[in-house]
Batch of 3 targets.
Target 1
Amino acid sequence: MAHARNPRGRKASTATQAGLAQRIRETLLLFGGEAHRKEVIAQLARERGLDVRHIPPDLEREVIVSFESACRDETLRTALGFHLKFGEGSHRWAVRAPA
């Protein structure tokens, strides 16, 4: 299983990845259930007080890895409701609200 790395080069913990995946879900719900991944990354950067014109590559990579890891894990994907709006390779991320 691939792990996101923090700025110091250490692997991010599973708990940290799960927390980030949950924030991604909340952000997608904020955007009405779907958004381009760049919009999600910008919103998460904004929440951290970062300048969205200069998002650190490490943050961008961490968010993408977290979403993709959650999508590959069937249990987590189902729990979070993640799906790719236009299929594999799509940058349009979406979340299904719980039934």
Target 2
Amino acid sequence: MLRTRAVDVSLWQAVLPPEVLRLPDELARVDALLDDPVFFAPFVPFFDPRVGRPSTPMEVYLRMMFLKFRYRLGYESLCREVGDSITWRRFCRIPLDGKVPHPTTLMKLTTRCGTAAVDGCNEALLAKAAQAKLLRTNRLRADTTVVPADVAYPTDSGLLAKAIRRIAATGRRIQAAGGATRTSVRDRSRAAGKRAHGIAAKLRMRSAQGKDEVHAVVKRITGELAQLAVRAADGAERLLSNARRALRRTQTKAQALAAVGVQDAAAGRRRGRLRRAVNDLTALLQATRQVAAQTRQRVAGVTPAGASRRVSLHERDARPIAKGRLGRPVEFGYKAQVLDNDDGVVLDHNVEQGNPPDAPQLAPAVERVKRRTGRKPRTVTADRGYGEKSVEDEPARGRGAPRRHPPQGQARQGPASRGTTAGVPQDDQVENRQRGPDQQPQTRLRLGPHPPGRHRRSPDLDRTGRPGAQPGQDRSPGRLTERSLGDQQVPVPDAARPQSPARDFFRSK
């Protein structure tokens, strides 16, 4: 059952002095903003208004999630800090003698509502800002980035070995929940582990003569892993069919008991575990067969298409995306487009599967911004990824036409550069400019968590200033051999050779 408001002020809070109850300026402004009931509307479809246990008040959940993302806290750290702070309790509408929600409660609410509630809150916030005339839409910036999925670096052999281990573990879960207890399934995890270790041992060979041999052995072992994964999936199919039959029997028995007014809570929990295990095994077998098929294509010398390649067993929509970044030429996740204004306020964003082109996404994003704010942007700045003729032809269709400005120092190339700018309204422009190494990126927004084990590019890779002299460098003389004294060329002794700071700076000790 949905609850939107928390309880009233308790007696302990009423006797506290006003200085203790005063909120900081930032939290006071956010508190006044979140009092609007429009932010509770996105959560209504996920709860029954009358039936069920009362939920955590949505105003408490919204305020706690604001603190979580504002100060970059985990769920456990957030609950601990809110419980220890009178100010944060006051902001989250939790009385002093009240109980802070458990971290797992916040996790379940976030999982249950998902991105739909977040999008609804964002739409409500942008609508309030546009109504108050706080959004500036004269100039927009458009850029695409990769939202990395929480996956390890995918290899065919690693995915196959992991799939075989997970098939065996999920089969044990099904039997522990009471399904297909008399069906035997062979555990091939040990054989898969041996073959995966064999690939790692062969890859450690550094001799030039053994490169062809290593390549052939790796292909052979990878093909064996694919065959082993298919056999493990075929063996698990019989277990899955028997588990589904057992699940149907338990559901029929539960319905019969419910008809006579008898409820068995323990049997219901076992039935829920069995249902979840059956669903997990069904999705796992489908992913295993897909990984095995693309592995056989690669062994046969055919590169699988990146738009349909499976790179994870649990992230089925993650795809390989090549953005040409230093240190990470290929990333695995989703492609996101972000439109923000001069103030850094994100006016539109969308996440796409795979690596679609940038240019077709620009016009729909601008239309969404116009619909939200009620005003048409004058200039949209983007990089060369948006430089296509279709973007330049927008004025002819009456959608607020772009004018394309080529990057400085580069000639106009390609079909997008042949578009004319005559007759294009001056208030509708799209600037395609290439960012230099010493310029800041167009947006600082980072969507999603940073995957563990992946580090951002070091700022030392981009040296924007001229290197100066450093302490402790070698100050030995340069290598000049002679100098001109009038018309006579005489050798220059070492003691008389001039110092060369530029040469000495790059001389190692």
Target 3
Amino acid sequence: MKYLFLFFFVLSMTTQAQKDSDNWTKLAEKTVAFKSETDKIQLLGSNRTIDKVKIKCVQGTLQLKSVTIVMDNGKEKKYDAKGVGVLTKGMSSMAYAVPDKDDKVKRIEFEYDSKGAMIVTKKAKIEVLGKKE
């Protein structure tokens, strides 16, 4: 009986995780260079009213250093992303809260270091994902 309970508990947790991952919407994508730099990604369209942002690596290897969320009204919040570590294909950063949930996100700035050699590895590609709670 307790194994049956355990089975349904694990199944419900898996289903909840899948539902949570389905709420993320792709807002932008970017191919990053093989050097350390800061990129600014302007968000366009109607998907800019969000509560959380995360960065997903879809190709290559990338180390995030910081993420800054800039709102239309000028408010901004900078997050230190060094604790995230190195992102490889399929991995995502943690979710970062938007500083003003009543306004739209204007742009995302992120400082990174792309890992790899120009001849050997592909450039890193990232997606900026947003979520409205």
